[in-house]
Design goal:
Blueprint lengths: L1 E6 L3 H16 L3 E2 L8 E6 L4 H12 L2 H6 L4 E6 L7 H7 L5 E3 L5 H7 L10 H7 L18 E5 L1 E2 L10 H5 L3 E2 L2 H13 L4 E5 L16 H8 L7 E5 L8 H9 L6 E3 L7 H7 L5 H14 L4 E8 L6 H14 L3 E6 L7 H5 L6 H24 L5 E10 L2 E5 L5 E4 L9 E9 L4 E5 L14
Parallel strand pairs: 1-2, 1-3, 3-4, 4-5, 6-9, 9-10, 11-12, 12-13, 16-18
Antiparallel strand pairs: 7-8, 14-15, 14-17, 15-16, 17-18
Helix pairs in contact: 9-10, 13-15
């Protein structure tokens, strides 16, 4: 028996797919990359933007002929398209889909495949483990020993409800996982060869706030730091309101916690930030970045920015431009605002910024960020840095620095999973090239498109 999983969207969806795959591995299924060979097909969907929803609908529609040809094929639609309450509406539209699963929940699929036997087990703890709600994560055989970096969810859902965001309505309220479950999962990944884990949450630095007297993210980092076999720890995505001194200190103190921070600003104008319900001002964001850099001098900081939010004037956009120009952040994930049914912004605000203005503003920020990151990366030229190597791409090994810079190295050795010092020989805005310390490269560097 074989299964195939198609995953679209964020890192949380990637982690959810791993958990579904683990549950199927428990049942004796094996992973196939060929969709026509599969007995079970899982489509894990994203709807954060209309384009993602359209892509997901196109993909699930394309499976109708396969289902007609093979009535025993099980099709599972999962993720944010289904959401926490959306299955009934979709059933009428997609009658050939067998199972509809909310985000982060393999239960409906496993119940369908076992005809409800797992869900009806008297031993609740056995059921919980079988459905992969705690620490028994099994990677597919093809990935064991090859998957170097993995994602571990620590907070499900979100209760913050920014006015532009659909996630709280699709993934439900904020729920922190127990420490024991998280640590158990990290240990199981380490035993299967994973060297780096990324802790995930829609607002990851709110971890534990829904648990009375529970540990915060800083405390969790200190616990995971002791897990044998894990060499690097990352986390995302943070919110400026909850990025406190304890967390900054933990990053500064713990050598296995990488100095790379995801800290979305979303906009640089205070009125726009207020309309987004972000809860901070431009100056407060600037002050936080200054505090982080003072205590973690070599850290890299990434951010998210939305252009063309309802009501955003040209001057308000220029405030965002000036903030990005001044702070010189390492990464800026840029997006044009798009209407999402169900969000506060869609219900109460007019999408009044013309698409051509959104696109122009996006290009202005994109050009600015390319200049910024080019200058940042130039500082690495000739420097020695440690790289964790993940895989070979187009004849070169690909890995990342502690600050999450992408590095390519030529080597005939098997570097997978190794942390090795390299000397940077070429830098560009999106990647760098290097040679292993003490090794002389015979080829001229060339740009690798990703």
């Amino acid at each position: 028996m074989k299964y195939h999983i198609w995953t679209e969207g964020c890192q949380m969806n990637v982690a959810d797919s791993q958990r579904v795959g683990s549950s199927l591995e428990h049942l004796g299924y094996t992973l196939t990359e060929t969709i026509e060979e599969a007995d079970v097909i899982v489509l894990n969907t994203c709807v954060v933007r209309q384009s993602a929803e359209d892509k997901a609908m196109g993909r699930v529609s394309s499976l109708a002929p396969l289902k007609k040809k093979n009535p025993n094929l099980v099709i599972n639609l999962m993720g944010c398209m289904v959401g926490v309450r959306g299955a009934e509406k979709l059933k009428a539209k997609l009658p050939y889909v067998d199972v509809f699963s909310p985000p982060s929940d393999p239960g409906p699929l496993i119940s369908h495949l076992t005809q409800g036997e797992v869900q009806s087990m008297e031993d609740a703890e056995t059921t919980r483990r079988f459905l992969m709600m705690d620490d028994e994560l099994i990677l597919p055989v093809a990935e064991q020993g090859k998957l170097i970096s993995a994602h571990v969810p620590i907070v499900y859902g979100c209760s913050h409800a920014c006015t532009f965001c659909i996630i709280p309505y699709k993934r439900g309220i904020e729920r922190s996982r127990p420490v024991g479950d998280i640590v158990g999962e990290v240990r199981s990944l380490a035993k299967q060869g994973v060297k780096e884990i990324t802790l995930l949450g829609q607002i990851v630095d709110r971890y534990g706030k829904d648990i009375p007297d529970g540990p915060n993210l800083a405390a969790l980092l200190r616990i995971i730091h002791e897990v044998e076999g894990i060499e690097r720890i990352r986390f995302l995505t943070s919110h400026p309101n909850y990025f406190d001194d304890d967390l900054i200190q933990a990053i500064a103190e713990l050598p296995r916690v990488m100095p790379h921070i995801e800290l979305p600003i979303q906009a640089g104008d205070d009125e726009v930030l207020s309309n987004m319900k972000r809860g901070y001002t431009q100056q407060q964001f600037r002050d936080l970045v200054a505090k982080i850099r003072a205590q973690i001098p070599d850290c890299s900081i990434a951010t998210d920015i939305i252009v063309g939010f309802p009501g955003e004037t040209e001057e308000q956009f220029m405030e965002t431009y000036r903030v990005l120009s001044d702070l010189k952040l390492d990464v800026a994930h840029l997006a044009r605002y798009s209407v999402r049914e169900g969000t506060v912004a869609t219900r109460r605000m007019e999408d009044d910024v013309p698409e051509e203005d959104k696109l122009r503003r996006l290009h202005l920020l994109d050009d600015l960020q390319e200049q910024i990151v080019s200058e940042i990366n130039k500082k690495y030229l000739g420097e020695k840095v440690d790289v964790l190597f993940e895989e070979k791409v187009k004849g070169r090994w690909r890995g990342r620095t502690p600050t999450n810079k992408l590095v390519f190295v030529e080597s005939e050795e098997n570097l997978r999973g190794k942390v090795l010092p390299v000397t940077v020989t070429w830098t560009g805005p999106w990647s760098m090239q290097a040679q292993l310390a003490g090794v002389r490269s015979q080829k001229q560097p060339e740009l690798i498109s990703l």
